[in-house]
Amino acid sequence: MAARSVFSPNASTDKASKETEEKTSADWPPDTGSLAVPAWTEQTIPGKDVGLLAARPIRRGERIMARTPAVMVDGAAVDALPVAAVAGLLHDAASSLPRPHRAQFFNLSTNYGADGSSKDANEAYQIFATNAFRTGIADGGPDLHSVFRDVSRINHGCQPNCAYFFDPATLAHNVYAVVDIMQGEELTVGYIDPVQTHAERKAKLHRHWGFGCTCARCAQPPHRVAESDDRVRSIRSLLETLDNYTTAAGGSETGTGPAAAELLVLLFALEGLHARMHEAEYRLALEWNGAGDGLRATQAARRCLDRGLLVRGAEQAFLSSMRALVADPTTHWSWRFRLGKNDNKEQGSACTRNENGTAADMGVSERDEV
């Protein structure tokens, strides 16, 4: 079936829906402290339609919400079926949701137009196209697209204060704070890869979601935008060079080594890429280990684990690599590899292919583009 609601209504469900329509505590999994002081409130944001604001101070590392999908769609069906057919299936699935969830779904923002079989079906497709996330269940599993009621309300920011990951074990989309958030501050996530210049981000956001970003990073004066763009180009160059593990000799002349990785960490911080800081710390851990400094490598690996577990969940290859480095830097594949004295070369070649921290392996996620 191409599209289905996660909740199947029946008589008891409809009755329960009416009783809990105004209650947020019925959501599952529950938010941290949801029974005491909710972390967020839904409000109209000038120029942005509806968004979520912090209802109280939120500390870095706090889970703000965890939501199961309202609707899941098989990506193969999206590719194979005409838009009108997908739109009709989406309309049927969304219409079968319990009453409060159904109202929340059809209240989500729309930016897309499509040729649906009816006005209502077309509306469901527009909501899906604007708000869906890619939510793979497992490697080699189906390519699924999911719409979440509350998570989909979080607006975009190029320096997001929140990050999300999908847990296939619980089918929940988890949203965590990656920085301390003040009461009244808008909650934001990244719809796109933020390691792009201002013009690139602007074009992609307008092309796929139909809005112009007004976040602090995009609203800077021209001279600061130019500096930000220069930092982005430096980040790209450093990532390309540091991810070349065949370079034996580290140092400024090759663009590798701990100094280059420290610069990468600094540039990530200056750009406000807090949701991606684990990527920079990963490279720094490898460079210190590649230079034979196990203590500093372990420090960076610990920071990578702290950040990575927060924004990517526990089951990630790069996190396994960092755990192995913490356990014993000298037996990790990266030990002294920049010095050309790697005693773990065979292990290193395998790990380099599978745990090298590239964009795919580090779990860089973008909001769905249907």
From TrEMBL:
Supply the CDD domains for this chain: SET_SMYD
| Bias (Basic and acidic residues) ranges | 15-25
Instruction: List the biased-composition ranges (Polar residues).
Output: 347-357
A Pfam family it matches:
SET
Task: Spell out the residue ranges making up region: Disordered.
Answer: 1-36, 345-370
Q: Give the highest taxon in the source lineage.
A: Eukaryota
SET domain mapped to chain residues: 30-192
Q: PANTHER family from the entry?
A: SET DOMAIN-CONTAINING PROTEIN, SET DOMAIN-CONTAINING PROTEIN 5
Under which name does UniProt file this protein?
Answer: SET domain-containing protein
